[in-house]
Amino acid sequence: MKLEFCGAAQTVTGSMHLLHINGLRVLLDCGLFQGRREEAKRINKEFPFDAASIDAVILSHAHIDHAGNLPHLVKAGFTGTIWCTPATRDLCSIMLADSAMIQEKDAEYLLKHKGEIVEPLYTMDDVSQTLEQMHSIGYHRTFDVVRGVTAQFFDAGHILGSAVTMLTLQENGRTVKLCFTGDVGRPNRPILRDPEFPGHADYIISESTYGGRLHDEPEKLEDKLLQVIQNVIDKKGKLIIPAFSVGRTQDIVYHLNNMYNAGKIPQIPIFVDSPLSFNATNIYRLHPECYDDEIRKVLMNDSDPFGFATLKYTRTVDESKKINRLKKAHVVIASSGMCESGRVVHHLMHSVGSPRNTVLIVGFNAEYTLGRKLADGHKTVNIMGIPHKVRCEIEKISGLSAHADESELMNFFKPFSRTTLQHTFLVHGEPEAQEALISTMKSQGVNNVTNPTKGTIVDL
Questions:
Q1: pTM of the full predicted structure?
Q2: Which of 210, 224, 237, 347 would bridge with 356, disulfide CB 3.0–4.6 Å?
Q3: What domains sit in the chain, N to C, each tagged with a CATH number?
Q4: Which pLDDT does position 154 carry in this prediction?
């Protein structure tokens, strides 16, 4: 048994890990890498293995940095089964289609405005074939992946349908338990259940995005959000909130809905400018089996916690363009969260140059992304290849993150028996965050923790 780290190794995006067992290959996640455009294009185009040699894929959740390169894998020759939860498959049906559409639209834009010929990584036909190969299965049900590998999904509490996977591996009379966390969510969030303990393991592959950092206290979140909105009203400007269409957008809308119901939100137009967010929110409505007790109580008095009178979901391009012509104060929630694609890019092009406007960063942004540059205070940023002066205000809220912070990760690790746990591999994090988390884990008696580099192969 061998484990090969093919992506999200000492970086946050492009999750991809390859399990070798009984002469077979099982891929854990197949995500898009996001970062410098040329580097991302090269990494996403070239798999470090023959796609046709992969026998099965286990998908932790639908976020593009975990699922976004699956259609390319299929296009390159993968014909096996992709295992995931029902909600993950439903979300992938819209997210992968959206990803293909964005690639095609970006290619058209670059050809028209810069004369560049760019071939999309995959098309809608590849997405359709990918969905045909997906097989969904609910939490806590054991399923056979390939010969010698069985698995169970447990709720990761990260986004709708996200899963921690416990794999039982058998080869040459040996049995090994391998836990793959995907992305670990946070306890006590208002929509999804808390992350579940999947049982004891010999090895863990864990995300480490927020190693060394703690999130804002939840009770301060709505106060901060209201403060930022009021500031934009005073300036008669625009508030842009870049947010992932799945997870983050629904969380923001849920909090705004609570504030509206409590009479706290001023009468200001609020737009969710993303067809994907609209479709994803409908899928959230279809999967109440993933909800926690808090939202169930809300639903007793509020039939739609994802909508209120001053909130409008915009779907067409014309509706989106009209927002940019609006002269009065307003709020726009638009994807993508890292500002690398989608409608938020166009809103930023029209808005970063004015001090009347504010950009609110509500989640992690990978290194070299436009979102990271804005968060880090760059005075000039390139948007669609054109330099723009940043004169708008930049605000940040960390309490909306769907990733566990260091303290929450340590609480997740705590139940794992140190007598059986042989090694923990930290992935999906930048080196500084991983080193901080490794230090904390060792200080609490959890040894044999490493952060492998891309291409590292280890024996299990």
A1: 0.88
A2: 237
A3: 2-213+402-459 (3.60.15.10), 218-396 (3.40.50.10890)
A4: 98
